[in-house]
Amino acid sequence: ADGPQRDGVAAGGGVGTALALRPEAPEIAGLRPQLVCPGDVVAAEPGALRGKGVLEREDGKLVATVCGVVEQVNKLIYVRPLKHRYIGSVGDVVVGRIVEVQAERWTVEIGTAMLASLHLGAANLPGNVQRRRTHEDALRMRELFQENDLISAEVQKVNENGEVGLQTRNARYGKLQNGVLVTLPSVYVRRQAQHVVTLSQLGVMVVLGNNGWVWICTPPKVAGSGRQETLNFSQMDVRYEQVGPEMRERICRVRNA
Fold first, then answer.
1. The whole model's pTM is what?
2. What confidence tens digit (pLDDT) does each residue in 148-161 have?
3. Which of 133, 185, 199, 209 could covalently link to 137 via disulfide, CB atoms 3.0 to 4.6 Å apart?
4. DSSP state of 45
5. Radius of gyration of the chain (CA)
6. Tell me: the pLDDT tens digits for 52-97?
């Protein structure tokens, strides 16, 4: 007599037998990314335009010049590198560190080849006051941001030499506190609708920087109520506070993930 069976697999059968009997979902055409190395032929339709990371050989075939994933936008085909230095794009949300306070501007490290700059006129004043910046504001710049402060900002412009200009006029941008910084390759963070995300199950807020810098912190609290705010808040109103052991454990769990 046959031995006992479980879920259609004999008890004495190996792991390979169970895997062989497992049904496989049909693969959807076009969803598998094409990973290429330098010199590999890039599959492209006739009449395709070559972009970054693609070179045309003498025989007319397109080959990759970098290691990455093949991407195509209409007729344009290019290779997105798996790891590269962040170059900045207008509208990107970034997390950076203040390096130096200069005349009417801050220099910020965001992982680009050149230090980014945040002009005093592009920074949000306390209380969200909308007025022209004065000489007194320039003298009190360190009350806003000082050296080694971590901030969240948006890329306002990218000059021809690669220098990035930042702005923090939105109330959601500003000094980051009560959390920990995690750095990873910028290709892992794509542009999306929301870069400030609150993990409701853990009660932890995450700021996803397109430059690969991720800030994990406690959600800000509404002034006077003590409850945590998840939708409407001003980063300028966030103040330093002692984070309890339970919240630190939650933050570390997200960081280690």
1. 0.69
2. 999 999 999 999 88
3. 133
4. -
5. 25
6. 889 988 888 889 998 888 888 888 888 888 878 888 889 999 999 9
CA end-to-end span of the chain, whole Å?
49
CA 82, 250, 98, 210 torsion-angle sign: positive
pLDDT for the residue 134: 83
Cα dihedral sign for 218, 212, 120, 150? Answer: positive
Q: How many CA atoms lie within 13 A of 67 on its CB side?
A: 4
Q: What type of residue is 39?
A: G
Q: Which residue has the tokens 């919240």?
A: 247
Neighbours of 230 (CB within 10 A): 15
Cα–Cα distance between 74 and 97 in angstroms, integer?
Answer: 38
- φ, ψ dihedrals at 140, nearest 5°: -110, 25
Q: How far is CA 67 from CA 34, 64, 84, 118, 175, in A?
A: 11, 7, 10, 34, 36
Rounded-to-integer distance, Cα 126 and Cα 236, Å: 6
